[in-house]
Task: structure prediction
Amino acid sequence: MKKLYIIALALFVFSTGSLFASGQTESDTKTIIFGDVSWDSVQVHNRIMAFIIENGLTGYKADFIPGDTLPILTGLKQGDIDVDMESWHSNFPEVYKKSIASGDIFDLGQNMPDAPQGWWIPRYLVEGPDAPAPDLKSVSDLPKYAYLFPDPEDPSKGVILGGVAGWSQMKISEKIFADNNLGETYNLAITGSGTALAGTMVGAYKKGEPWIGYYWAPTSVLGRLDMIRLKGSEYDPALVNILVNKSMMTKAPDIVEILKKYSTSVADNNEFLAKMDENGWSSQETAIWFLNNKEAIWTKWVSSDVASKVKSALKAL
Result:
């Protein structure tokens, strides 16, 4: 894995020019590598921060290395990656704890607080004059509504989409399912990917049909659809923190100070992800929208001088 990172970095250096803005040479400019994990929100955060450091600070350039959660963490620990804008601690708590305890990684605090996870249903199932399940409030109410969620492979039972094959969160869905004795009236199903899971939710929602399953926020889906999380299915709030390699403390202390203040809400993330999905924007376009429309948020992270430079760069686009 480390070899792959080194190759990627070598290709980046080879492909960039020798001169940078303001007459700086390549040797004068420090490249900050962001871990581009596979979900949209972290990629947008990476580009928000990249725009700020490239346009508001001097002597930096940003680049991105794609990868899944654990390979990105490995690259961060080894120093091949500088910044992880969204580390979901609660999904791999022991791995993160060990990596931070080693001193190779510094935790700069939360990007967003209390990212919710759990089992969700459409609001139209429980609210409105034609709601078919007005008393469905919690997991304990599910047995009497199994008929609303028929399993196409076993019509004698309902089906709950517990999550995605291979995801660590499935263990929690399995525990909720077992603790509430739902096996008598439901089957607990999995999908092959997060995209497939979202597709089942969106497909049912468009038809106004019942749906129940695991999901999380922030996501574009929960930003667009009016869903309710069932009581008794709530996971512990996810810790979504910003991590940096130890070298950042001396390599880019001014960036570290910005990252310590960098903070967004789940609602902020759901909003820009919904905009991204509705408009078919790239992560870069979404980052620009955020910077143009959420000044009150990001200007709190930076000095007035940096903010002024970033605003000027946005106007020049």
Summary: Residues 1-23 have pLDDT under 50 and may be disordered. The chain has 13 helices and eleven strands. The longest strand covers residues 105-115. Residues 40-56 form the longest helix (17 residues).
